[in-house]
Amino acid sequence: MSEVDDLLNSGVKPSTLNLITLVLACANAADAVEVLAVGFFLTVYRNADGSELSSADKSFLTGSIYMGMLLGGVVGGWLSDVAGRKGTLTFSLALNGLAGVISASSSNLEWLITFRVLAGIGVGASVPCLFTLGAELFPVQTRGVYLSYVASFWMVGSIYAAGAAWIILGLDFDGERILPGWTWRPFVVAAALPVFLTLISACFLLPESPRYLIQRGRYTEAAKNLRRLTGRHVSPESLVGGGEDDTLTDDETNPSTTDGMLLPTAAKDEESGASLSSAPSRSAATSTVFPRQRGKAWLKVLESAAGVFRGSLRLTTLRLMVVWFTLCFGTYGLSTWISTIFKVIGIKNEFLPTFLFALANLPGNIASFVLIERLGRKRLLAFSMLLAAGSAFVFAFTSTRATWLAVVAACCFQAFSVAGWNALDALSTESFPTAMRTTGMGLLSGTGRFSSLIAMFVDGSLEHSVALLFTVTGTTTVLGALTAFWLPYEPTGQSLDGLVGRGGKQGKERPRDRKVWQSFESVNVGDEGL
C-alpha cells in the first residue's frame, strides 16, 4: 500500500491530524478512567450490612473489569478486522459508558461485578481499535510520536480518576471530607462521563482507515477518506492493487505455498459494484480459491488468529505476548491496588499520594516523546522496564522504613512503566500486517488482560505483604525487559506495510519471509457473512 504511505507522508492536513489524535487520545483516557476507577472506590466500598469486603471479594471486584477486557480484547480485535476500526471503536465506547453508569445503581456486589465485566468488554474491545486506527492514519515519519501522544492520554485519564476520587471520596489537608455524604456511586458516574464525550466526538470526527477499506476492496470509500485527510484528489482506480509490495506471484497463489491462508478475491468496489479487475496480478482465478470458506465468519476468526503465528511473525508474536503479560501484571496490578497499598503502609489520606502516583505519568510521557524515535521502540521499552523493576525493588525495601521514599519509588515505577507502555503500544501495532493488525493487537491485549486478572488475585493475596508484592512485581518486569531486548523487529522509521526487517534483523530479509508477509497482506478477511 505504498500509495497510501505516499499520500499520508506528503501531507495530512494538520487540523485533521490533530483532531484524529485528540479523539483517539481521549478514547484512551476514557478507558483509563474506567479501568482505574474500581481501585479508587475499593477502599470505601462496603457490603450491604456495612462490613468491609474480604480479600477474595476485593480480588473479584478488581478483577471483574479485566475479565471483561480479556474477552473484549480478543473479540474486539477480530471484529475490527472484519467490521471496521471506527465502527468497532464507537460500539465499544458505548458499551463501556452504559455499563459504567448502570453499575452505579448496583444493589449488591454481584451486580456490581456483572456490570464491571460488561464495561471491561467495552474497554478491551476499544484498545486494539484505537491504536490500530492511529497507526494506519498517521504519517510514517511521525507515527511513533503521534502514537505516543495517544498512549500518553492514559495519564490524563488516571489524573482525572485520581482527582475525582480525591474530591468525591477523599479528605482535605485538615483531615475532613471534601464532599461529606458522597459515596462511591457518584464517583462511578463521574468516571463514565469522559466515555460519552469521546463517543460523540468519535462518531463525527474519526474517518475509517483507508488501509482497511482497501484491504476490503472498498476503494471509493478509501479514496474519499484520503481526500478528506490530505485535501488532494485521489481516484479509486489509483488505489487498486495496493502497490508493488502487495502483489503476489503465481506460485504464491497456490494454497500449498501459503499455509492454507485465504487468498485475495477479485478486486471489486463494494459501493458501486463496478469491476476493478484491472488491478495487477489480480486474476479471476484467485477469486475462486476456497469458495466454501467465503461467508463463514468463524473460519475468518480462525484464519486471522492463526495468521499471527505463521512464518516470521511467530517469533514476534510470542515474544510480544511475554512482554505484554509481564508489563500488564506489574502496571495494572499496582495501579489498581495502589490506594490500598498506601493505606496498608500507614498513610491516612491515601488519595493524596495516589494523585501524585497519577501525576508521575507526566515525566514518563515526556521521556517517551523525546526518545521514541531516537532510541527506537525496542530499546526504549526494554530500558524503561528495567528501570521500573529497579523502582519496584526500592519500594520493597523501603516501605516499612521510609514511607516518603516508598511513595517516590512508586511514582518512579509509574513513570518508567508509562514510557515503556508508549513504546510497546507503537511497537505492537507496527509489528502486524494490515489484514490482521487488530487481530494481533487483540491477541496481545487479551494476553495482557489475562495477566492483569492474575495480578488482581496475586496482589490481593499479598495485600498485607507489601514488600513481597513489589518483589514479585519487579521480578516479572525484569523478565519482560529481557524479552523486549530479543524482539526480532525494530519498526522505527519503516513503512507500515514495508518488508524491511520483517525477517529478523533490521535491513535483512529472507525470500521465504517476503512470501509469507505478502500472503499475510493479501488475506481476504471477508466481505460477506456478517
Automatic annotation (TrEMBL):
Location (main, coarse): membrane
Keyword field contains Membrane: yes
Entry membrane topology: Multi-pass membrane protein
Protein name, as recorded: Major facilitator superfamily (MFS) profile domain-containing protein
Subcellular location: Membrane
Highest taxon listed in the record's lineage: Eukaryota
Acidic residues bias (residue ranges): 243-253
An MF annotation (GO) of this entry: transmembrane transporter activity
Disulfide bond is among the record's keywords: no
GO CC term (a single one): membrane
Assigned keywords, A-Z: Membrane, Transmembrane, Transmembrane helix, Transport
Transmembrane segments: 20-48, 60-79, 113-133, 145-167, 187-206, 320-345, 351-372, 379-398, 404-424, 464-487
Domain Major facilitator superfamily (MFS) profile, first and last residues per copy: 20-492
Region (Disordered): 235-263, 498-518
